[in-house]
Amino acid sequence: MSAGVKLLRQPALHFALLGSLLYGLGSRGSAGPARPELPSRVVSLTAADMQQLREEFRRATGHLPDAAQQVRLIEQAFDQEVLYREALARGLDRRLSVVRDRLARLGGFLGLGPAGDQELLEDSARALGLARTDPVIRRHLVYLMELAMSRPLPGDFPTEGQLEAYYAQHRDRHVQPPRTRLTHVFLARDRHGAHLEEVARRLRDELQRRGVPPSEAQRYGDPFPAGARAAGSHAQLDRIFGAGFAQAIEALPERTWAGPVPSAYGLHVVWIHEHTAARVPPLRAVRNQVVHSYLRERGAARREEIMAVLRRRYSLAAGASIAADGRSGTGG
Amino acid sequence: MTVLPCHSGQRPRRAAQVASALSAALLCSCGGRVAPATTGAALTAPWQRTEAREACADFDLFRHAYFGDLHIHTRYSADAYIFGTRGDARDAYAFARGAPIPVADEREQQTRTATIDRPLDFAAVTDHAEYFGEVDLCSRPGSPVYDDALCQLLRQSEPPREQVIATVRWLSLLGSRDPRPSLDFCASPGVDCDAAAVSVWKEIQAAAEEAYDRTSACTFTSFIGYEHTTSPGGRHLHRNVIFRNDRVPDFPEGHLETAADGIPQGVWKAVERDCLQAGTGCDAVIIPHNSNLSGGEQWLDPIDAAEAQRRQDREPLAEIHQQKGNSECRFDRMVGYGSDTEDELCVFEQLPMAHELPGTPPPSIDAYPRRNMIRNVLKDGLQLEQRLGVNPFQFGFAGSTDTHNATGGNVAESGWEGGQGNNDASPGRQIADYVYRNPGGLAVVWAEENSRDAIFAALRRRETYATSGTRPIVRFFGGDLSGVSCERGDFVERAYKTGTPMGGVLGPVGDHRSLRFAVLAVKDPGTPQVPGTDLQRVQIVKGWVDRSGATHEKVFDVAGDAANGASVDPASCAPVGEGADELCAVWEDPEFDPSQRAFYYARVLENPTCRWSTLVCKSAGVDPFSSACSEQAARAGAEFANCCIRENDDPFLSPVVQERVWTSPIWYRPEGIGEVTGGISFGPPGSDVLELAVRLGQRPAGLDLARHDLQLRVSDDDEILRVVFPAGSLMPGNLSPPPPGLRMARFEVGPGGEAVLRLETAPRDLSRANRSTHAVQVELSGGSYRAIYTRFWEASGDRLAPVTGESEDQG
Questions:
Q1: What is the ipTM of this complex?
Q2: Which site from B188, B352, B391, B640 is most exposed, i.e. has the minimal number of CB atoms within 10 Å?
């Protein structure tokens, strides 16, 4: 295959399928045809299961779970089992080509039929219950259910009104600190030595007396590579001039030559164009970020809503030793 | 000003249905959902706005220095994942903006935390595009290949020295010139590595969008990018692709996709096809890096002038400094000379090996591939220009980290967390196996504001400098520079009017008198916790080629004092002695020969400080300065033995370093545009007149006026005038009749071969030229010849005109 033309293998199909999955996901009774062979609505978690969860946790993090983490592990295991059973209830194991291929491959490994007869191999593997026991199929189904629950839907895209309301609720996330915009005339410590302070005061007085506008201030003073103008928050200004500079100009009056103000390099006679108070920017300026977080929260909320409904269909039967650490049942 | 329309941008070949249509819509910032920017009245930057955003409050025509990192890896890079990194693009941008993020410990657990005391102004996450999808599928428990052996290899936590197996098995395809298109498991039924790659690419774009400050505060700019990773025989021919805005290719083509089209022509072709020529408003620059590990192959001779020009256009910058070493120049102190240099300061942060083919010992300085070092490449570029008429290696400088911990800008020497996941996650690991590495550098741009368009334009015109991690602020200009003086506060404004900033190209000035260069630097102000270091001196590094085609270099000290006596206190590492807060020089090249093409860049050196390894060693109770170092190391553990490497035992390492800045070069071309005079006289509507005299030093070799059209273009952010002189029409003397729209055109060739093109337009509408003082570009092109001359033209009354020596303002 030519390197430049690796074609996507119809990923859209996956998503069309996911979309159809969502239909009825949250509503009782519309879960497709009854599957009499489905196990009960009790999720059992044995002490051995729990031991395995703890071991997996240790492998991933390097330490055993504490009590709270263990509760979380149990919740996750329960949720995954619920999603898995709901996926089976929807016949996903029969509809997804990934699962069917996997079953046929397992059938082939086990010699359940002639190589090449995909259908027979798949059916034979299914008859052995491999769709239930194979961890790869299980994880894949759980993953698809998760994806289906939390991915944004076209209807999720907020209306202008919804977005404005959402932004109003979360304005605190976008508050911008006070800012100052200034022009300055620099006097280098290295050049003026002991006279620095005196030279700076004289310069300030002269600029004031002659009414020099900031646009002409570059004619005075020593060259400063960062430029004659600066604008930013206190933190930004301190990054340019050195710590303490922003605080020193905080109280200076606007639109007049003031200072001198010390920096990491010398003294500055400063013209404050304006101090701007902390502000929340208009929605249009942060719109993309706000839409992103709106959709993310919307997806997370819907996942929780659907999950809550699904959870209510099942109950947890946990071994005695687990119940001592964790919880004995879930919201059902 | 132009705001590009929104576009659907999906080529059918890679229809990106994977990410939902919603996120595609989100990533497009147009559609009227963000207010278009309005810059302050009469302020024209020399670039077009391509995105919708608020205007920046700090916009300044004379530019600010912004500090960034254009080379950051996260968990989406296969090697970073193998090393235990789990931070993603969102984490990387959060880190760059000052938030703490977890980083892997020696066992790949996320138990450590890293943060920077000064946020960056801009950053690009540049994950290895190869295996975006594979890494994603292997790290997602629901994926059908999760249990594949290769996936398990990716995820498993193993001691650093055993990781080489996983790294080699994953990355070996990158070392092939004719690689398979993907890893084996991508061919399994139901496995779609391309689709997974697209979804990762969309995640990276979404993370960049969320981090980008489109408000007038302009606090942070994120760039979308990726690394194109080609490593034939362990030779790093790696390149970062940095996109101008959110209109990017649907699929980031890496080595596996482009190898068949050549190295590096394949990545150029992909960027040209999927971005520059896609008609989507996409724009990109490509930044090669780690030439120090390229076995001399990062920059090979172009086949012809066209390829030289293509390289110049595609690759305006090179990364000169990063964690895996410095690439400026190399000096071996054990033998007393360097790779085509006598510059002893080139011992700085050198990696011993010349490439990463396992099992090859580091070469001697004589066997070292000279084009691993950028200074040599710049010299060779002059030589090639002499032959081809075009300089293929006309690039400026960027520094970056190349962190594989998602920790862009984590460059402090003190308390460095490392940058390679669990490989250098502990003091012992850092010293035992990574002692030649360093925290990496920063990329600094001179831009009007902190926005994507402004910073990208700076990258493209090479108005950038690199630092080894600290933050001095440095200006560097070249040209006529009349009136530019260290004694005058208008140094910067004047220099933009009478010269070119770093990254520019000069022709002969005046009556063949020497070029002048002006450099102005202040030290890194530091923070209360970590004060900046005083400056020691400013140097100008000159490279040139003589008539015989031989290349030369020379380093001039132009400000400061090499013998200022500053050092460090070996007990505490505190600085001893003083340097300068600021240094300034206006320097004339005493050896200037107008017939010799040359480049000049400024190197600014700080006073000595303790190297990061010295600080790590001292914390472990091993003092590199102590005569008891070996005994201390023996007590601390075998892994600390490298703490005691002494200057007379090693060609490069030293417990004390001088952090430094490299400005992008300014080039001198004898056939460059030496001067532009004239200007625009604005009249009643529709009757403006532009007069120009464009002086070339010597007739360009690549331009045959009998065979080639010559085009003259005058522009600011818009095109002001374009005139084409058809082949054969430009004979010495007045052109009769002049080309359409001109009242007069005249071409003069002097006795020394110098040429002057004079023209005057008929009265016409030139109102697209902004009537305020701003940058105006004059470009001449024809055949393989191209020359650009940009100066700030001054607005005064009804005139907009370049400043000349005669019109010098003595304010």
A1: 0.90
A2: B352
Instruction: Round to whole Å and give the CA distance between B377 and B240.
Output: 19
pTM for the complete prediction?
A: 0.91
- At residue B702 the predicted structure's pLDDT band, cuts being 50, 70 and 90, is confident
Of B142, B195, B492, the CB nearest to A142: B142
- How far apart CA B455 and CA B459 sit, in angstroms, is 6
Helix (H) or strand (E) holding A130: helix A130-133
* Residue B524 Cα to chain centre, angstroms: 20
Is some CB atom of chain A closer than 8 A to the CB atom of B20? yes
Substitution target in A239, A283, A294 with the highest count of B β-carbons within 10 Å is A239
pLDDT in tens, A189-218: 999 999 999 999 999 999 999 999 999 988
Residues of B in contact with A221 (CB under 8 A): 489
What pLDDT shows up at residue B327? 98
Q: How far is A65 from A49, CA to CA, in rounded Å?
A: 14
Provide the shortest C-alpha distance from residue B674 to chain A (in Å).
26
Residue A297, SS3 per DSSP: helix
Other beta carbons less than 10 A from residue B185's beta carbon: 18
Give the single-character DSSP code of B583: E
Q: How far is B773 from chain A (nearest CA, A)?
A: 12
Q: Which burial class, exposed, middle or buried, applies to B136 when counting CB atoms under 10 A from its CB (0-12, 13-18, 19+)?
A: buried
Model confidence at B17, pLDDT cuts 50, 70, 90, reads: very low
What lies within 8 Å, CB to CB, of B524 at 6+ separation is B470, B471, B472, B532, B533, B606
Q: Report the DSSP pairing between strands A42-45 and A315-318.
A: parallel
Degrees to nearest 5, angle at CA B591 with B585 and B596: 115
Subunit contact A227:B490, Cβ cutoff 8 A: no
Percent of chain B with pLDDT over 70: 94
For B247-267, the DSSP string reads: ---SS---HHHHGGG-TTHHH
Amino acid in the structure at residue B527 = T
- Please report, for residues A119, B430, B744, B756, the alpha-carbon distance to residue B713 in angstroms, rounded to integers and kept in the order given: 69, 54, 16, 16
pLDDT digits 0-9 by tens, A20-78: 554 444 443 344 444 444 456 888 888 888 888 898 888 777 788 999 998 899 999 99
What is the enclosing helix (H) or strand (E) of B455?
Answer: helix B452-460
> Residue A136 is nearest to which of B60, B144, B521, comparing CB atoms?
B144
CA angle B142, A147, B246 (to 5 degrees): 105
Among B18, B147, B584, the residue with its CB nearest the CB of A223 is B584
Q: What is the mean pLDDT of chain B?
A: 91
Q: Residue B105: which residues within 8 A CB-CB, separation 6 or more?
A: B84, B111, B112, B422, B425, B426
Contacts of A3 in chain B (CB under 8 A): 181, 256-261
B8 versus B308: which is more confidently predicted? B308
